[in-house]
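Notes to self after the call with IL:
- keep both proteins in one doc
- input above output, always
- annotate only the second one for now

Protein 1:
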Amino acid sequence: MNLRMVLTKNYKSFLFFLLLLIVIISLFSLVTGYLSISLSDIWSTITGEGTKRNQLLLIEFRLPRLLVAILAGASLGVAGTLFQGVTQNELADPGIIGINSGAGLAVVLFLTVRSSQVSSSTLINAISLPVAAFIGGLMAAVCIYMIAWKKGITPIRMLLVGIGINAGFGALLTMLQLRMNERDFNQVAIWLSGSIWNAHWPAVFSLLPWTLLLIPISMYKARTLNILQLGDQMAVGLGVSLELERAKLVTIGVALAGVSVSVAGGISFLGLGAPHIARKLIGNKHERLLPVAACIGALILLISDILARNLLAPAEVPVGIIVSILGAPYFLYLLVNSEN
């Protein structure tokens, strides 16, 4: 009996293990960093007996950053699963096919028009930036559909179109950056590389409603994703409205990826790796694949954030760079070993 069969048979226990692992790594994330803090200090802070230093460090900095990592990681893991399921393309990832770039372009354009600093710490940005990111990501998805889908979608065609759109939006982003002052230019560059160093409570509250709404809806659509795997003719025969269901699933995926970009910046390869790892562990049934991909996405971003904070402390590496270092070789491995 191989590992997948064991984990599939004991799915609930495996999911509980992943959730427990998230809790353990979260505690480790809270105590590690340039300024150290112990578990007893955390307990003292929770009970209201901690020092002002520990309260500031935990409540205002590390805890919101931790929650953003969990929410954004889970959202990107689910978004990647949706895109791979809809396109039947194992290489589909919001960061690779241009969804993240479209969302990032919309956010930067919105901030440029408002002449605002790139920050998720203000209430107005916390409300408006996810909406702007969603619109930008949806614009990228429409471009991919118009160019690739209408002429007959294939995995490699969609990938190439997405890479082209990603490059185009990247060029527009660079043009916008060149019009900024030095401070905003540097902030945008760090943010676009994937950074949650500036995550505060407004960022958590901007992510939370989208995540709590869209991830359960994604899991409700698991049966539709399973049917899409059978092929277009079989899906139509089973009563699925292909274009409508694909549009719904893509919209959900774009929203999850976009709101993550609005807070955590452009984090590529997470939406690629989390579904693949989950699929190898638990199989292709989406009612199990989606929750596991969400947990693995959260774990990857949590671990990457710990590395980003501690590798060059007191300086920080953008977490998106850590994820890319881990994810790019895996993408090349999948590309080389793909049957098509």
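Protein 2 (the one to annotate):
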Amino acid sequence: MTRKGAPIEVIRSADCGNSPKNALVESLTIALLKRDAGAVLANVTGDVEWRIAGGPVLRGRDAVARALREDAKDGIASIRIDHALTHGRAGAVSGRVTFRGGRGFEFCDVHELSNAKGTSVSRITSYRIEC
């Protein structure tokens, strides 16, 4: 939900059926887009680094949580995940966010998993293109 409480339609990819790592990176990207600090912090390491392309690198859980609170998005109507893929310790999630007014952005988040089992994420780079 957005801060105003309106439900957000989430359309997940078909890529996560048998892959816990794919499911992890997809869920983490959805939490980032929804600005759900609790869900994000539950899936990242203490020394996580998050960079939105063109912006500063946020280092550590506190910096990430602060950014999520400060940049809470109102008006998101839907999040569509096209693909969630992982290989080894790397993963990527792509899709589209649509706002209630119709505008939105395409995105791709690239995740670095903290270990080969894929239990948490240590680095995220987010790419956003308004459309």
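Annotation: The chain has one domain: 9-130. The CA atoms of residues 29 and 109 lie 7 Å apart.
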